[in-house]
Amino acid sequence: MKIAIDAMGGDNAPKEIVLGINRAAQDFPDTEFILYGDESQIKEFVIDNKNISIVHTTEKIEGTDEPVRAVRKKKNASMVLMAQAVKDGEADACISAGNTGALMAAGLFVVGRIKGIDRPALAPTLPTLDGKGFVMLDLGANADAKPEHLLQYAIMGSIYAENVRKVNKPRIALLNIGSEENKGNELTKKTFELLSSLDKDTFHFVGNIEARELLEGHADVVVTDGFTGNVVLKSIEGTASAVFTMLKDVLTKNLKNKLAAGVILPDLRKLKDMLDYSEYGGACLFGLEAPVIKAHGSSNANAIYHAVRQTRDMVKSDISGTISNAVNVEEA
Prior knowledge:
CATH superfamily of the largest domain: Isopropylmalate Dehydrogenase
Catalytic activity: a fatty acyl-[ACP] + phosphate = an acyl phosphate + holo-[ACP]
Number of domains: 2
Family: Belongs to the PlsX family.
GO molecular function: phosphate:acyl-[acyl carrier protein] acyltransferase activity
Pfam family, one: FA_synthesis
Distance between the termini: 33 Å
Strand content: 15-25%
Helix content: 40-55%
Enzyme class: transferase
């Protein structure tokens, strides 16, 4: 198996990217890692190049670049070369922590879309109180969506949850403003009808879910349009950050609180780990001919390592081929 890596993408590149790959290279000796980027910077952090190779390029896509224009103009950018390697069959999948819009453009225009998929979807795994997590899509690949797109998201999310996350009979839920089937706008009402018509022996639609229930573990796959999904994701991230900031302020306010903090610190760390996105890997860009993984922009070595673990599982499960077969069967 070969995985292409954009070593120059993200806030902590290339150091944290390479450190994560070092660990992955040791734990997964059957996998070859191709790192794209400035060779002199990358070599500084590579520990053992037994199954790590470097393709040198000084061009990269910045976070401020306009996504589509950057992918078309910067042909030698580390992200574009990474995607091209997948397209050409030189790699089985690719990972980047760089510009999200540019990675989606590279996935769509370079790697290519699965026949039968109208629009790819960005799908991270988010934490739940029981520690199992759930897949949510779309979280930003497409601001607008039709009911037919959400139907495809449900199929792709369910296949991923079952084959990669090893969830038996994944529960699919539709994000809505109420649990009743007649709630919502035109999009959610029509989508509810389509999801209800799915083959019940293969897909397990459990109805609507409200945003306040997302982290309670009521569903394994949650479907929504990209605009709503992105707002929800940023709300969860912002709320978690604010809560931990408030806790820190309270626990360091005076000596009594500091002493109490010392006692409960191990439990607080466990709580923080439960909400740590890095343990779940990156966000999958579903609907493409091969796995394309978007790691968080601020990813550290641990996040990159888990993104590799996730990517390997997707390649071994032939997730793109399984999605292609399922979508074409549904359409037939």
